[in-house]
Amino acid sequence: MSGVAADGSQVGRAGSQGGLAGSQASLAAQKAALRRSITQARAQLPQAERTGAGRLLRDAVLGLPEAQMAGTVAAYMSVGTEPATGGLVFALWKRGCYVLLPLLLPGGDLDWASYEGPDSLVPGPRGLLEPAEPPRGVSAIASADLVIVPALAADRRGRRLGRGGGSYDRALARVGPAVVTIALLYDGELLGWLPSGPHDQAVRAVAQPAEGITRLP
Fold it and tell me: What is the pLDDT of residues 166-180, one digit of tens each?
């Protein structure tokens, strides 16, 4: 009987591991399908609409009390079809904020360095523009009073859909619970529900061009 019990327990563990692997594969497939759909929709937006969305998002974020009081803001330079952030980053810097921008590390984590105006940016990996200033370390984001992050979508729980590399999930895990973390979206990209896993970090607000700021639980 003991041999049967041992065999049964081994089968149970294998079944549990197989179920976990299947669940993870299903989650990855759901996310991948959503990424494709949203990326295709964004690609169809005219450049003028993307630029206009960037201006509206800039004004919405600059109007946040947390942005007006922030000494340090972690932000990012948009790439591809993302809503334009160059104007927002510049406006925060001109306002006197200490602006941190990400440096993509080889392993996918994010280091941070200061933005010192448009001329301080240099080409980085994957088409990114990165600051040429010395890196301050992956934990520098923890000093930010406001954190602005990219996203393909978010849901009403604050779950964020990124590009799949996990860079911002690692970065957001270093941000304190009282700091507003805000994702910049196009209109229609705040969804009722998104598939998420245990390592997915939530944001506390989103900004959309027409809807403005939406605070999330």
Answer: 999 999 999 999 999
The dihedrals phi and psi of 148, each to the nearest 5 degrees, come to -110, 125
- Strand intervals (E) in 63-159: 72-74, 98-104, 110-114, 121-123, 129-131, 146-150, 153-155
Integer angstrom CA distances of residue 190 from 100, 103, 156, 206: 26, 27, 7, 8
Q: How many residues in the chain?
A: 217
pTM of the model: 0.87
What average pLDDT does this structure show over 37-59?
A: 95
CA 69/CA 49 separation, integer angstroms: 30
Q: Are 64 and 75 in contact (CB under 8 A)?
A: no
Q: Which two tokens stand for residue 6?
A: 């041992």
Handedness of CA 84, 139, 120, 128 (dihedral sign): negative
- Selection from 78, 58, 76, 67 nearest residue 180 by Cα: 67
Q: What is the pLDDT of residues 52-88, one digit of tens each?
A: 999 999 999 999 999 999 999 999 999 999 999 999 9
- Residue 113: phi, psi to the nearest 5? -145, 160
115: burial class by Cβ within 10 Å (0-12, 13-18, 19+)? buried
Residue 182, strand partner residues = 148, 205
Helix (H) or strand (E) holding 31: helix 2-43
